[in-house]
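Summary of Year 1 activities. Much of the first year was spent building the evaluation harness for sequence design. The harness presents a backbone, in tokenized form, and records the residue chosen at every position. We chose the following record to illustrate the format because it has been used consistently in internal testing since the harness was completed.
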């Protein structure tokens, strides 16, 4: 089993090479290069009849594996270096396209960066409220963060200051972003976020991936996002490429809000009680009875297994928080 690479006999073609993959009767593509070493290579599907009878073979690459997996073909060459690559079937500018990429070119398109461990703004410890409906929440494991679970009126991650919800961040995967936009849920979510002093939406993908969508028109999604940003300019929609970068951005955004709130309170003290953004913030969400019961037991307070909690238990929780 081998990958055949030949010169393209068509003088008018901008793709100088032909590829023949050992799948079915042989899949044939014209390609921009012989291997995706520095950038992903554009390929154009051809019919088996387009493979010349007297092909000028440039290279024969022995293969250990050539398997189609969904919208991609995985190639594993039988050599120690430059042995893995993938042909991905996608769309570009509304047309079908195939790109030949390697792990190296994939990392360049979606970089694996090392996020800093320095505290954001010097905040020693930040308490972030995680919405109780969030199934797979950020853990902020590399940062000085303490998380608590509670139902939030808006967003997935919130910051409580002086008993008020000062900021919230709504997390979206690309598919969730598109679904909530096309169904109208995103419009209501931004309206709720806009009622807070500070709020944002973070997307775990690149903006360019909007234009690779195949089940909805990319222009429809791009126009919808632009319209939402014009309507609610105080709630930015930020694309952060990967989940880890979105988590890092969320942490630093909420830490910056913590510092902003402290500066605003100091300014109000000096200037006078004219009121600030925090004065219009909604009250912090109350915990559930189960959360208070668990907290009480952890602090040696006797509580029943079921039913309502005594008022003194709630008073003790509020005093501690």
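For this record, the design step produced the sequence shown next.
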């Amino acid at each position: 089993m081998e990958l055949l690479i030949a010169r393209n006999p068509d003088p008018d073609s901008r793709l100088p090479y032909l590829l023949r993959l050992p799948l079915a009767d042989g899949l044939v593509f014209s390609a921009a290069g012989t291997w995706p070493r520095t950038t992903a290579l554009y390929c154009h599907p051809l019919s088996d009849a387009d493979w010349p009878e007297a092909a000028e073979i440039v290279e024969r690459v022995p293969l250990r594996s050539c398997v189609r997996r969904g919208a991609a073909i995985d190639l594993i060459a039988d050599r120690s270096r430059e042995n893995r690559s993938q042909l991905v079937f996608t769309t570009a500018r509304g047309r079908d396209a195939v790109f030949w990429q390697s792990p190296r070119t994939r990392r360049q398109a979606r970089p694996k960066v090392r996020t800093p461990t320095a505290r954001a703004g010097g905040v020693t410890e930040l308490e972030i409220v995680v919405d109780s409906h969030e199934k797979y929440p950020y853990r902020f494991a590399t940062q000085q963060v303490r998380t608590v679970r509670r139902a939030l009126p808006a967003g997935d991650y919130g910051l409580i200051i002086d008993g008020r919800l000062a900021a919230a961040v709504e997390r979206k995967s690309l598919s969730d972003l598109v679904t909530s936009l096309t169904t109208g849920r995103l419009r209501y979510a931004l309206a709720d976020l806009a009622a807070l002093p500070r709020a944002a939406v973070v997307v775990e993908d690149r903006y360019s991936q909007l234009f690779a969508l195949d089940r909805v028109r990319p222009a429809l999604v791009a126009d919808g996002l632009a319209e939402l940003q014009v309507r609610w300019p105080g709630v930015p929609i930020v694309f952060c490429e990967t989940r880890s970068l979105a988590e890092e951005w969320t942490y630093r955004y909420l830490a910056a809000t913590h510092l902003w709130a402290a500066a605003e309170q100091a300014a109000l003290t000096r200037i006078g009680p004219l009121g600030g953004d925090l004065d219009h913030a909604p009250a912090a969400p109350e915990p559930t009875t189960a959360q208070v019961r668990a907290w009480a037991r952890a602090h040696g307070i006797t509580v029943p297994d079921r039913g309502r909690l005594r008022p003194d238990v709630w008073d003790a929780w509020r005093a501690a928080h």
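The mean pLDDT is 85. Quantitative recovery figures across the full test set are reported in Table 2.
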